[in-house]
Design a protein that fits this description.
This protein has 301 residues and is of the alpha+beta class. It contains ten helices and eight strands. It has two domains: 41-167, Muramoyl-pentapeptide Carboxypeptidase, domain 1 (Orthogonal Bundle); 172-299. The protein has a six-stranded antiparallel beta sheet with strand order 3-4-8-7-6-5, with helices on one face. A two-stranded antiparallel ribbon has the order 1-2.
Length: 301
Amino acid sequence: MQRMRTTIGMLALLVLALPFFYPQAAAARSWPIVRKGDSGENVVTLQASLSFRGYSVVADGAFGTGTETVVKSFQQANGLSADGIVGAQSWEKLFVVVRQGDTNSAVNALQRQLKNKYGYSLSIDGAFGAGTHNAVVSFQQSKGLGADGIVGGDTWAALLSGTASGGTSTYLTDAEARAMLSAAGIPVVSSGNCSDRNNRTCTSLEQIRRNTITGVIGFKQASGCSFNVTGGTEIGHSSGTYSHYNGYKVDISRVSCVTNYITTRYTSIGNRSDGAPQYRDANGSIYADEYFANHWDILFY
């Protein structure tokens, strides 16, 4: 009898000790489903996470055939169903834990999520410094998470599953902006035939504000004019808060239809300091006639 009691006692202690020997499954997280054809910050995060893990993929925010192929390779390597669709099981294997002091592609994606989806003011440089740490802590507090500044599965799931005000990102990737313009019949051209934001001969739409792109599309629909976008967020323009680089401005080709429409329908507000005549529409957008550069410079607030 004593032996039986001893055996039962040992079994009870073993059962109580099981959680220490076997890690318990994490509470179910809510992850978004991302697949071919999608675009935006969640796709950027996916691509950046794949890049961190050694896969060759460009973090352009557009989920095309190339990204799908890489996703399938990752899924196969991790014992998942290789369908190219990124759901909870893929995210659980894919997310990268980042914290203050890290510098990598996953940190860059984190900063883009915080700034472009949630409006936090911070630099997107891939370096997890004090500013990024403070933004992470603030976000974690807003979601009722442990505010330790470490971005693990719970924080990534909250970032990816949440949406900005209105459900859309304030800023767009170059691929997203070009897709919107293309659908509206507006070509994007550059003297250098390129889209590198750090090359002044290119026309880049990386990190352009959504309002700027919808403003350009609205102008085309109202005017009925055909024109090209010739300048975006690339370097080489004037600095300032409401600048090209910050996504507020865009240049369009100076064709007669555009010039006639602006000068006859909008209010003249005088010349800019460089001599460019300026006009304001009913929404407050400002159109500067940079005749000396053969384009219209438009500021959309």
